[in-house]
Amino acid sequence: SAGEVADTFGFGAYVVGGFVRDMFLCRSNEDVDIVVEGSGIAFAREFARIHNARVHTYEKFGTAVVILPDGFKIDVVTARMEYYRFPADLPTVEMSSIKLDLYRRDFTINTLAIRLNADRFGILIDFFAAQKDIKEKAIRILHNLSFVEDPTRVFRAIRFEQRFGFTIGKLTSGLIRNAVKMDFFKKLSGRRTFNELRHIFEEENPTPAIERMHDYDLLRIIHPDLRPDRKLIANFMAVKKVLAWHDLLFLDEAYLRWVVYFMVLIRQFDRETTRQICEKFAMSPRHQVIFCKDRFLADRCLFYLGRNIPLKNSILYRELSAFRAELLLYMMAVTRSRAIKKGISQYFTHLRHITTSVKGRDLKAMGIEPGPVYREILDAILDARLNGKLRSRDDEINFVR
Ligand code: CTP
Q1: CB under 8 Å, gap of 24 or more: what pairs does 308-312 form?
Q2: What are the protein's UniProt keywords (predicted)?
């Protein structure tokens, strides 16, 4: 029906980009991008009206997001009509606006489009040999100035290459080396650079991407001393395992994957260097606290736990309850001690949910004068409970008596 809406306005409309690419790769993709030749905003409003959907429009960019009642999201962009100056001032060639829109994109594999209008509905449009590159498993830019236009594409090239098991093409690879040599990144803001890096650490397996970044001498963007040595790689693989364990058991508990990987990545650096890295990437204060403070507390906690093996449940509870999931996962990944790892997983699956059944009001009913002693009594009950000495409410009441 998107095609029908476009037809009523006389606009061309196409599904483009990642969604079509992933169809060819037999991968699922939840994001649909539609390019409209005309007004993307008018199209999105009408489409949303018909489907009872919410719509957010960004007039300045001619873009809109439509959110259907079931949560499905559609991004709509307007194929820009303005005159396009070709790189190296080649003579201008007439292009339809969809072709121009696709030509501006990062890699050939992202330039497939499917027509939605009734006239030629469903035909696949492949202006830039995307199908060939998908077949050859190659990441290729569309023109030589691609990385000049947008240096963040260097990180995207590596991310797509590793995600799909593709290889960056020869010419593209040379242009990446050139971009690194000429330091195209210096004109990028720290925030934008980091935003792309973050996407790499959100991937299913970021380890090979780190090695690839090292191949291209890109890790120095984070810090000149950063190397994917054996220890770092081992820690990265450990994170992957721990996250898989967590996701299997706690499917619906949200946390930030990239945060865990990034903590491990910059673990070798002291507090001051870490602070400088966070500043350079203009991280939010919330994230700075995690990397500059919590991460160091977590390492100290690991040290403390190491000196208290065998670990009592009450110690695990007391030491770990202050940490958010990302930090606990970090500790599980970097510790070399089986006992600690087991202790943290025990905390995760079990201990953190334990509470006392006796509460303050029960103590009052038992005739105990309210005061700081309540905290002491309740803590003592919780400790005994955690260590398996109390099993029921009656046990707890007798314990107080
Ligand atoms: N794009 C680009 N240059 C960039 C970022 C994006 O040309 N620096 C283009 C890409 O061609 C992409 C489209 O904009 O198809 C949408 O970007 P994004 O949603 O980031 O790409 P996806 O391919 O959907 O990536 P992912 O699968 O990771 O969501």
Answers
A1: 309/337, 309/339, 309/340, 310/339, 311/339, 311/340, 311/343, 312/386, 312/387
A2: CBS domain, Magnesium, Metal-binding, Nucleotide-binding, Nucleotidyltransferase, RNA-binding, Transferase, tRNA processing, tRNA-binding
Question: Is the CB–ligand 1 distance for residue 31 below 6 Å?
Answer: yes
pLDDT tens digits, one per residue of 262-281:
999 999 999 999 999 999 99
Ligand 1 proximity of 335 Cβ (cutoff 6 Å)? no
With a 6 Å cutoff on the Cβ, whether 152 touches ligand 1 is: yes
Counting from 1 in the atom list of ligand 1, the atom nearest the Cα of 159 is 28
> What sign for the dihedral angle of Cα 174, 176, 177, 182?
positive
Q: In whole angstroms, how far apart are CA 202 and each of 26, 146, 205, 374? A: 20, 24, 8, 45
- For residue 88, pLDDT beyond 80: no
CB neighbours of residue 195 within 10 Å: 15
Q: Collapsing DSSP states into helix, strand and coil, what is residue 228?
A: coil
- CB neighbours (10 Å) of residue 93? 9
- Residue 374 tokens, joined: 């309540």
Spacing, Cα 156 to ligand 1 middle (Å):
8
Say what the pTM is. Answer: 0.90
Instruction: State in Å: Cα 238 to ligand 1 middle.
Output: 29
Instruction: State pLDDT tens for residues 189-220.
Output: 999 999 999 999 999 999 999 999 999 999 99
The amino acid at 22: D
**Cα–Cα distance, 204 to 84 (Å, whole number):** 37
26: left (phi over 0), alpha (psi -120 to 50) or beta: left
Regarding the beta carbon of 38 and ligand 1, being less than 6 Å apart is answered no
108 CB under 6 A from ligand 1?
Answer: no
Ligand 1 contact, 153 CB (< 6 A): yes
| DSSP letters spanning 163-206 | HHT-EE-HHHHHHHHHHHHTTGGGGS-HHHHHHHHHHHHTSS--
Nearest CA residue ID for atom 9, ligand 1 = 105
Q: Are 55 and 48 in contact (CB under 8 A)?
A: yes
Q: Which candidate, 167, 184, 26, 20, places its Cα nearest to that of 102?
A: 20
